[in-house]
Amino acid sequence: MTKVWDPLVRIFHWTIALGVVANLTVLRHAEKLHIYVGYAMVTSLAIRLVWGFIGSRHARFSDFVPGPRRLARYLKALIRRREPRYVGHNPAGAVMMLTLMALIAVMGLTGWMMGTDRYWGVAWVEEVHEVTANIILAAACLHVVAAIVESLRHRENLPWSMITGKKRAASGTDIDYANFADRG
């Protein structure tokens, strides 16, 4: 086993996961708590964005953000069920992560806007907030299904690795580090 996900990455992941679940269910109408959880998620996102540049190897964006060609190659291999195993994020997982991060930012921005005098009660802001919440829910469900499928395909418990921080070390055709020069 090798250490892949550092504590900050894991805390970010579970803060966002639990915050989304809480705010879309039990805290949906508990305004004060909903706002506090939203601020905690946005703060966590800001820290994670900084950590993406200065953090541990697999936490850095330079380790996992794919270019369009690498993403297309991975998706073609995935469709053929011949995708390589990545020790860190695979290209599809990286795109999902970046998408969820952007959606969390939109949620935070629109949530904050709804609390200001200028945008309080403005329908389009509330609509963007609601639609974004639904997109996050759908993307999170896809993320969970993909993690389960990948866990089965590569015989590795990915949710558990996000708890322990450890994954099976690279061997054979596994990819341990996405070369920055291979962005294409």
How many helices in DSSP terms?
Answer: 7
Distance between the terminal alpha carbons, to the nearest Å? 30 Å
| CATH architectural category | Up-down Bundle
Number of strands: 2
**How many structural domains does the protein architecture include?**
1
Q: Strand order of the main beta sheet, please?
A: 1-2
**What is the gyration radius calculated from CA atoms?**
18 Å
CATH H level, superfamily name: Transmembrane di-heme cytochromes, Chain C
What integer is the average pLDDT? 91
CATH classification, class level: Mainly Alpha
Q: Main sheet, how many strands, which sense, barrel? A: 2 strands, antiparallel
Instruction: Extract low-pLDDT stretches.
Output: none
Say what the CATH topology is: Fumarate Reductase Cytochrome B subunit
The H-and-E topology, N to C, reads as EHHHHHHHE
Strand content: under 5%
Membrane topology: Multi-pass membrane protein
Subcellular location: Cell membrane
Domain Cytochrome b561 bacterial/Ni-hydrogenase: 4-165
Transmembrane segments: 7-27, 33-54, 91-113, 133-152
Describe this structure in words.
With 184 residues, this protein is mainly alpha-helical. It is 65% helix and 2% strand. The model has no long low-confidence stretch (mean pLDDT 91).
